[in-house]
């Protein structure tokens, strides 16, 4: 018996009957030999962790564009916090931690530079529209490894595709990530906003903090424990109705006071215009695209508009700025 088979037997003994068992995965688009050490979801987790798109997350905006300080979240640290919260919930509910972690680590791989500002402008100008959850799946199915993708299991891709508010993941592990994503960004965006001086803890409405808590630590603890308490031994993942409504009320308050009207968000218009100009420029100059993207057009028959959208969506904030400076900002010169 291989180590993988031993681990699969342990899952059968330990995990909830509602869990997604590694041995019962719906599989991959391209069949592969089983690994002798790792079950399928652990292999998926490892593939995501080692892919290029994951590494680029460290230089992509979470909420605040180009913050001056080392302690503000990036898209990578957000992803790691979602993963930690999701794994805690999965462990307590005896669900599959490997599947949960793989979905969490992959859920934002397709996110644009400059956060949701980048997503909004690409959605406006791209003929096919743009949603980062769809792009995340596109990243693991096609963009990585020159059109081959990572060949992940159906369960991981389903969880990535459906991690948004309107999503409906087919596994409980996917549903955990969907709610862990909200828990993470609501709380760390409050923490970053307080650090940025946008508001103080005392400014948070009492109608939310009375139930959720008066610190980031307390709110995280309250939300996570509520999910676990209300989801034990059930074929669903949810909060109590009052807790969920309060969490979403606090989320709405953040949209009004941070995501739309705060001073750091005022720079987003510049970021959107920069992305728009880069998109139009590379549509006219596809010969300047990196070789791997020209390969998608020349060998895979992908339309230029789709290829340019993929290229820009994959940029880090810093790379997008450098690219803009290269093509649009005059350089100084001198005669020797």
Structure in a nutshell:
This protein is mainly α and 336 residues long. The protein contains 16 helices and no strands.
Protein model, in words:
The protein is an all-alpha fold. The protein is built from 16 helices and no strands. The protein is flat and about 75 Å long. The chain starts with a helix and ends in an 8-residue tail after the last helix.
- The share of residues in helices is 55-70%
Shape estimate: flat
Largest sheet: none
Counting helices, strands and paired strands, the structural category is: mainly alpha
Q: Which parts are unreliable, with pLDDT below 50 for 5 consecutive residues or more?
A: none
Total number of helical segments? Answer: 16
User: What portion of residues belong to β-strands?
Assistant: under 5%
Order of helices and strands: HHHHHHHHHHHHHHHH
**pLDDT averaged residue by residue:** 95
Terminal CA distance reads 74 Å
In total, the number of strands is 0
> What radius of gyration results from the CA coordinates?
21 Å
């Amino acid at each position: 018996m291989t180590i993988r088979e031993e681990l699969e037997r342990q899952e059968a003994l330990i995990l909830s009957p509602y869990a997604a068992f590694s041995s019962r995965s719906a599989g991959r688009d391209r069949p592969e030999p089983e690994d002798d050490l790792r079950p399928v979801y652990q292999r998926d987790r490892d593939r995501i962790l080692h892919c290029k798109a994951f590494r680029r997350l460290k230089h992509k905006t979470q909420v605040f564009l180009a913050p001056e300080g080392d302690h503000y979240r990036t898209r990578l640290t957000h992803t790691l916090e979602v993963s930690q919260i999701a794994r805690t919930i999965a462990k307590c509910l005896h669900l599959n931690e490997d599947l949960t972690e793989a979905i969490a680590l992959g859920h934002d791989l397709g996110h644009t530079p400059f956060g949701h500002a980048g997503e909004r402008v690409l959605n406006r100008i791209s003929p096919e529209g743009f949603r980062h959850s769809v792009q995340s799946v596109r990243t693991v199915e096609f963009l990585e490894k020159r059109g081959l993708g990572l060949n992940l299991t159906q369960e991981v891709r389903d969880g990535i595709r459906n991690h948004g508010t309107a999503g409906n993941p087919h596994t409980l592990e996917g549903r955990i990530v969907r709610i862990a994503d909200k828990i993470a960004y609501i709380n760390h965006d409050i923490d970053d906003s307080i650090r940025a001086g946008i508001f103080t803890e005392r400014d948070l409405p009492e109608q939310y903090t009375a139930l959720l808590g008066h610190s980031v630590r307390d709110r995280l603890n309250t939300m996570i424990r509520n999910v676990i308490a209300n989801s034990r031994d059930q074929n669903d993942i949810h909060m109590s109705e009052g807790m969920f409504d309060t969490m979403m009320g606090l989320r709405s308050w953040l949209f009004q006071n941070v995501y739309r009207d705060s001073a750091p968000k005022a720079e987003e218009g510049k970021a959107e215009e920069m992305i728009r100009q880069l998109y139009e420029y590379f549509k006219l100059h596809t010969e300047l695209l990196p070789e791997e993207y020209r390969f998608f057009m020349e060998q895979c028959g992908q339309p230029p508009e789709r290829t340019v959208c993929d290229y820009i969506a994959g940029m880090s904030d810093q790379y997008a700025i450098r690219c803009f400076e290269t093509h649009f900002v005059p350089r100084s010169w001198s005669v020797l």
